[in-house]
Amino acid sequence: MKHLYIFENNDALDLEPISLTRPVFDLRCGPFTMFERIRNLMPGYTITLFVRDELTFTTMENYPEFMVNPSSVADGIWLLGNVLWSREDISMIVKNPGTLFMDKNGILIAANVTSGVGNQWLNEGGPLQNKPPKNVKTLSISQSVLRYLWDFIQAIPHAMDVDQQHFPMGSKSENTHWINSENIYVTDHDLINPGVVIDASRGPVIIDKNVEINSFTYLQGPLYVGEKTTIHSHTQLKQSIIGPQCRIAGEVTRTIFQGFSNKSHYGYLGDAYIGEWVNLGAGTTNSNLKNNYKPVSVRVNGKTINTKLLSIGSYIGDHTKTAIGTLLNTGTVIGPGCNIVSHGFPRRNIPSFMWYIYGKQKKADLNQFFDTATIVKSRRGQKLTEAERTLYKQLLFSNID
Fold first, then answer.
1. Angle at the Cα of 15 (from 206 to 315), degrees rounded to 5?
2. What are the angstrom distances between the C-alpha of 82 and each of 14, 37, 85, 110?
3. Same domain, 293 and 342
4. Which residue range is the domain that position 8 belongs to?
């Protein structure tokens, strides 16, 4: 039996607010999550998952067929979950037993080790301590960790190029205008309404199952639109990743929607990452460029990071809501479970489960949040689970300003 261990390390919270409520391998980049891409690359392996303690039970719920955080391991391959792995990388790792693989920054991102080394590593704290096993040969590997959310945005073109091999590209349609149609894949042509322009001249466009795209919409690749998503009329959607069951309108550029979220009205989002069960009120708009054209700094995981990038939008956690007309500054980070009502720009950092109302903050009422989350999930045929409730309670009572 071949064993594969997909793990997080102790930098997982550098991907907040999205990683506050899910393992790093559950983040989306391209048509697949990081986990789905690894599974596609390594068929036939028995998969085990290592995550932060607070995510153990939600991970068990979301991945019921896999072991989560076992106390012992067998001989096997270990892969860090927030790396955009390629077939060539996997081949090199498999062919080098008894080896640790480090990225250019000296971070352990993969291993091919025996059960003895693996169990000793677990006894010493394992991957979440970010300390490699001792006395094992190391090799450098060119792949880099997608350590911050803006790295995921930057990786969209590469992820789409890698993943399009899983789709039979080359769709045709009489009702719409398609540019570079050999680079386009559409599952349900009859849900693409007349007057839609799909432009794959800059990268592939993949439209998954049961996606409705309304008239007078412009879609530009590289772009993925997930199952059961609706794109409203007069939408401009460019170089983005839209997860399943979203509602999208307005102008969206270089943005990832994890899934099950709504931006159903006008307004601009650029260089943003949006979690699940988010609802953005009409006119919600983020800035993604400073007036002085200087690189944007973002505060994540208690640190202020100079992104060295000019285009940085907003990062919004699960179950957060914005009121109509909400304006978000460059590099805004909003935790899960927040409610934003503001005449001008709110603060650039709003902790989890905060109500930000006209410049004042207060903790959310947990029972009220649960009531709303239950309604929201039921609209997509899902339930709020006990494991989710426990995780959200931990986030509410652990957040600090």
1. 70
2. 11, 11, 9, 11
3. yes
4. 2-147
Looking at residue 288, its amino acid is N
pLDDT at position 401 = 47
Query: How many whole angstroms separate alpha carbon 208 and alpha carbon 188?
Result: 8
**Do 189 and 336 reside in the same domain of the chain?**
yes
Q: 101 with 162, same domain?
A: no
Quote the CA–CA distance of 195 and 175 in Å, as a whole number: 7
Please answer whether residues 237 and 62 qualify as being in contact, where contact means their C-beta atoms are separated by less than 8 angstroms. no
Specify whether the CB–CB gap between 352 and 368 falls below 8 A: no
Domain edge (last residue) among 91, 116, 147: 147
Q: How far from 220 is each of 102, 133, 200, 237, 266, CA to CA, in Å?
A: 36, 45, 6, 6, 18
Closest listed residue to residue 315, CA positions, set 327, 305, 300 = 300
pLDDT of 343: 83
Cα–Cα separations (whole angstroms), residue 121 to 5, 71, 73: 13, 11, 10
Tell me the torsion sign for CA atoms 19, 24, 25, 28.
Answer: positive
Cα radius of gyration rounded to whole Å, the chain: 21
Within the chain, which residues score under 70 in pLDDT? 399-401
